[in-house]
Amino acid sequence: MARRGGWRRRIVLLLAVAMVAGAIYTAVEFLQRSETLITERCTAVGSGGDDLATDQAANAALISAIAVRRGLPARAASIALATSMQESKLRNIGHGDQAGPDSRGLFQQRPSQGWGTEQEVMDPYHATNAFYDALETIPGYESLPITEAAQQVQRSAYPGAYAQHEGMARAFASALTGHTAQGLDCSLRMPDAAGDPAQLQQRLAAAFGPIPATAAGRTVMVTAQDTRSWAVAHWAVANAKALSISEVRVAGQTWTRSSHNGWQAGDAPSGQVAITVAGKPAP
């Protein structure tokens, strides 16, 4: 009878262990798959853990795309990103501070200092181009320390503050101007609305200027070569949340919103970037 009781205890113990293991496995699977637990962030290779929220990444992508459009070096985008991060946290804010109460926008430009009207400095396109206009007047800005170049444009009361954002700025600028392939990734929840290929094309043209692009169903095919192709691809990833983009394919690599695994080897047409928006979500 003692032996029989011992076997029973062992069986009960094994069943209990199996149940606990099953519960742990189920919990892990739930945590991995649960959309509500995904922290939506964007990261760049070499950023040292300085991730950006999705709205910040979209603004960083616009600032970088305008640099590409103007034919400026990646260094210009680095300076602009460090400046905007310090001035507004890369957000288009509609207020200033005690030192500059009329400061506005991505770069906290002041209408009273000749940067444009309040409406203009609140326009990210105008504000970014105004920043680059001023930057290009600085002789040899490409070889200046980022904080010094930024200060010559901004005339800040805290000139050393720009330096703290150099690592982030360099990493995101390199990815978003296309100089670091597979350099940008965003972790996103699934979209709650269908994407609009026409809106995607409009936003692309606004950022990069006239760019060959055609829509076929939910996919927009953009003709782009070399670094520009990666600039466009990374711009699409950075704007995936706002534009309900589900997949980006370029240069034999694919970024898929649902995988959460970054860029993976995939099928992509040569000399083109394929950007696919999400369809209507299931009810």
Describe the structure.
This protein has 283 residues and is of the alpha+beta class. The chain has three domains: 2-31; 44-176; 191-277, no CATH class. The chain has helices at residues 2-33, 54-69, 74-88, 118-121, 124-135, 146-154, 166-176, 197-208, 226-238, 240-243, and strands spanning 41-44, 184-187, 213-216, 219-223, 245-250, 253-256, 263-265, 272-277. The strands form two sheets. A six-stranded antiparallel beta sheet has the order 3-4-8-5-6-7. Strands 1-2 form a two-stranded antiparallel sheet. The radius of gyration is 24 Å and the shape is globular. The relative contact order is 0.13. The model is unreliable at 23-33 (pLDDT under 50).
Entry summary:
It is built from 10 helices and 8 strands.
- Profile the largest sheet: 6 strands, antiparallel
Helix amount: 40-55%
Radius of gyration: 24 Å
Q: What do the pLDDT scores average to?
A: 88
Order of helices and strands: HEHHHHHHEHEEHHEEEE
Q: What general form does the structure show?
A: globular
Would you tell me the structural class of the helices and strands? alpha+beta
Order of strands in the sheet with most strands:
3-4-8-5-6-7
Low-pLDDT ranges: 23-33
Beta-strand percentage range: 5-15%
> What count of domains describes the coordinates?
3
Count of β-strands: 8
What is the CA–CA distance across the termini?
Answer: 59 Å
Separate helix tally = 10
Task: Set down the secondary structure blueprint.
Layout: H1 2-33, E1 41-44, H2 54-69, H3 74-88, H4 118-121, H5 124-135, H6 146-154, H7 166-176, E2 184-187, H8 197-208, E3 213-216, E4 219-223, H9 226-238, H10 240-243, E5 245-250, E6 253-256, E7 263-265, E8 272-277
Antiparallel strand pairs: 1-2, 3-4, 4-8, 5-6, 5-8, 6-7
